[in-house]
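Reviewers of the previous submission asked for a worked example of the structure-prediction workflow described in the proposal, so we include one complete record here. The input consisted solely of the amino acid sequence. No template or homolog information was supplied to the procedure at any stage.
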Amino acid sequence: MNAVEIADKSAKLTVREVAIDGGVAAPAVRFYETHGVVTALRTVGPQRRFEECAGCRIKVAKLAQRVGLTVREIAEIFADLPSHPNPQDWNRVADVLIKEAETRTSELRAQIDEMRAGARLCEVFASINEQK
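From that input alone, the workflow returned the following structure tokens.
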């Protein structure tokens, strides 16, 4: 990536500032950047500079990971977000996360029911793989 003079003043947060805002360590910010969850511009320095919504994106990514999504899946969801998401944009992301959480919860409940019914654990595991 070529170093650029940042003309867009909205990209002004450092890795440390994004880490604090996102509730993660600095290496996690770089991890999320590498995987496309957040993006940074480079100064001539070459230092990373992030837009103000980077911390929010990381918080939402952490929530999505708790739902069970991979970082790749999260980056795909975020790919459709504009650089400055509005509440409607975040509502669309929330809809995706809610749907995914409900699906996964339903699948887990079914597996718990199988175990309670006396199914052999290896058979429950087999049914998990068949669903995928």
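Residues 1-7 have pLDDT under 50 and may be disordered. We consider this example representative of the routine output the project will generate in years two and three.
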